[in-house]
Amino acid sequence: MRLAAKGLTAILSIITVGAALSLTTPLAFAGDDNNSKNVTEDEIVRALAPPPKKPLTRGLSIAPQAEPAPSAAETKLIQSVRGRSTRSLSSTEREEIASVAKDKPNIDLEITFDYNSANISAKSLASVQALGRALTSPDLKGSTFVVAGHTDAAGGEGYNQDLSERRADSIKRYLVDKYGIAATDLVTVGYGKSKLKDPAQPMAEVNRRVQVVNMENKTTASK
Questions:
Q1: Which residues form the signal peptide (predicted)?
Q2: For the chain, which terminus, N or C, has the lower number of CB atoms within 10 Å?
């Protein structure tokens, strides 16, 4: 009986250890930050693609529905900033771009940079490469995109404004050089520390990022 009891205890111990391992092993992967911030090409395409057109409504008294066309002021703004250098944009133009962009298809890729630098961080390079593939896909190629640079709250406004512009330029240069995207299809703008993603943690890495916005469909952008 004593031997049987010992054998039963050993079996229960093995079962307990196995159950503990099955519960804790997935948690190790859940906390892995190496892949958590990277996005795929498909995710970017879906986020930046124009919304699907509404189906036509048939009826005697109801006209077919259509997507609203961009306003004349919006079109004029986009055309006026295409091909401009980042530093040439005035504060008024930057805010006008932000106002128009808020209602456009967009994605925050959380592309981060080395501290106090415009160098793309190694862990974000995969996201930038996915962005390049997405912007050259048939669904998005030829559209005009805003590439907006942001910083954390460290340093003065002037310094951060310059740094955010250099970060936006860094992404644009990579996309043009590596993926052959037309420079005029990428409008770069810097916002410094004025639009923190996480105001509660102004020094957090998440604030050092680049946002991408699809500003107009490819029927009106350069080919």
A1: 1-30
A2: N
Angle between helices 125-135 and 41-48 (to 10 degrees): 50
pLDDT digits (tens, 9 = 90+) for 111-143: 877 877 888 889 889 999 999 999 999 999 989
CA dist 117 and 115 (Å) reads: 5
Determine the straight-line distance between the first and last CA of the chain, rounded to whole angstroms.
Answer: 85
Q: Which helix (H) or strand (E) holds 26?
A: helix 2-30
What is the DSSP track for 49-102? SPPPPPPPPP-SS-PPP-PPPPPHHHHHHHHHHTT--GGG--HHHHHHHHHHHT
Joined tokens for residue 54: 């509404």
3-class secondary structure, 179:
helix
Q: What is the pTM of this model?
A: 0.73
The angle formed by the CA atoms of residues 198, 202 and 206, to the nearest 5 degrees, is 50
Q: Give the chain's count of helices (H) and strands (E).
A: 6, 4
What is the rounded CA–CA span in Å between residue 51 and residue 105? 8
